[in-house]
């Protein structure tokens, strides 16, 4: 999760988030190169006297017409690749349904016969020692790591948004509509998220907690709940 005074992204815990962080760094390097070039040209124009080379230069006009097009291509290609990867859902090992309510989440493991639960934020007076305030819930979403997970998101009342930054996942929950996305956790751990759509007075009190575990732990957990 994020730390105090953190300027960058959270540590990536899924392949999609790793790609997003790399693209962010790539775009920043391109922006840095453009700003450096523009600053250099401005200083050069201020320090040098105007001449025929600076007033009328066909070669320079040709370069600064073609160069932005090349920059846009360098930004568009990896961006389109990531968009395709985020939209691709190929034979998931587990399907999870998240239903947004005011102000809690309901989760259904559709691959199991009877495995569903409500997930409420733990109030601060009841919070166990060492847990995070406003982020911990009474029932975590447990998923097997290194397995493709499909999540179907909807809402029961108003607009919500199911978002977990470290997984690179953010999907709107809309009443009467099913949206879906997928993710793969690359390591065991506990990942925190929150509703990212203003949904009423207690909008900031419906956190999301994903617990990524090895497959054998997930099987034990699911068997204990469904039995």
UniProtKB/TrEMBL annotation:
Q: Which reaction does it catalyse?
A: 4 Fe(II)-[cytochrome c] + O2 + 8 H(+)(in) = 4 Fe(III)-[cytochrome c] + 2 H2O + 4 H(+)(out)
One of the entry's Gene Ontology molecular-function terms is: oxidoreductase activity
A Pfam family matched in the record: COX2_TM
**Segments forming domain Cytochrome oxidase subunit II copper A binding:** 91-224
Q: Cofactor: bound how, per the entry note?
A: Binds a copper A center.
Record's GO cellular component terms? mitochondrial inner membrane
Asked if the record carries the keyword Transferase, the reply is: no
Q: List localization entries.
A: Mitochondrion inner membrane
InterPro entries linked: CcO_II, CcO_II-like_C, CcO_II_C, Copper_CuA, Cupredoxin, Cyt_c_oxidase_su2, Cyt_c_oxidase_su2_TM_dom, Cyt_c_oxidase_su2_TM_sf
| Bilayer topology term | Multi-pass membrane protein
* UniProt cofactor(s): Cu cation
UniProt keyword list: Copper, Electron transport, Magnesium, Membrane, Metal-binding, Mitochondrion, Mitochondrion inner membrane, Respiratory chain, Translocase, Transmembrane, Transmembrane helix, Transport
The Cytochrome oxidase subunit II transmembrane region profile domain is annotated at 1-90
Which BP terms does GO give this entry? ATP synthesis coupled electron transport
UniProt key word Translocase: yes
The transmembrane segments are 27-47, 62-84
Parts forming coiled coils? none
State what this protein does: Component of the cytochrome c oxidase, the last enzyme in the mitochondrial electron transport chain which drives oxidative phosphorylation. The respiratory chain contains 3 multisubunit complexes succinate dehydrogenase (complex II, CII), ubiquinol-cytochrome c oxidoreductase (cytochrome b-c1 complex, complex III, CIII) and cytochrome c oxidase (complex IV, CIV), that cooperate to transfer electrons derived from NADH and succinate to molecular oxygen, creating an electrochemical gradient over the inner membrane that drives transmembrane transport and the ATP synthase.
Record PANTHER family: CYTOCHROME C OXIDASE SUBUNIT 2 (PTHR22888:SF9), CYTOCHROME C OXIDASE, SUBUNIT II (PTHR22888)
Question: What's this protein's family per the entry?
Answer: Belongs to the cytochrome c oxidase subunit 2 family.
Q: What is this protein called?
A: Cytochrome c oxidase subunit 2
Q: Which organism is it from?
A: Pardipicus nivosus (buff-spotted woodpecker)
Top-level taxonomy: Eukaryota, Metazoa, Chordata, Craniata, Vertebrata
């Amino acid at each position: 999760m994020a730390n105090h005074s953190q300027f960058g992204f959270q540590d990536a815990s899924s392949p999609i988030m790793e790609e997003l962080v790399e693209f962010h760094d790539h775009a920043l390097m391109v922006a840095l190169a453009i700003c450096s070039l523009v600053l250099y040209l401005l200083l050069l124009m201020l320090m040098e006297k105007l001449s025929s080379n600076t007033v009328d230069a066909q070669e320079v006009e040709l370069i600064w017409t073609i160069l932005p097009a090349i920059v846009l291509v360098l930004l568009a290609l990896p961006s389109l690749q990531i968009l395709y990867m985020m939209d691709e859902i190929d034979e998931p090992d587990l399907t999870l349904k998240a239903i947004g309510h005011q102000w809690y989440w309901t989760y259904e493991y559709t691959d199991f016969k009877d495995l569903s639960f409500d997930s409420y934020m733990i109030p601060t007076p009841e919070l166990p020692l060492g847990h995070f305030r406003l982020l911990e819930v009474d029932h975590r979403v447990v998923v097997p790591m290194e397995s493709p997970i499909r999540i179907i998101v909807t809402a029961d009342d108003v607009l919500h948004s199911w978002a977990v930054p470290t997984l690179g996942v953010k999907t709107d929950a809309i009443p009467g509509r099913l949206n879906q996305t997928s993710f793969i956790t690359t390591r065991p751990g506990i990942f925190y998220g929150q509703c990212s759509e203003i949904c009423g007075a207690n909008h900031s009190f419906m956190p999301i907690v994903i617990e990524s575990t090895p497959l054998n732990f997930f099987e034990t957990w699911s068997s204990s709940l469904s039995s």
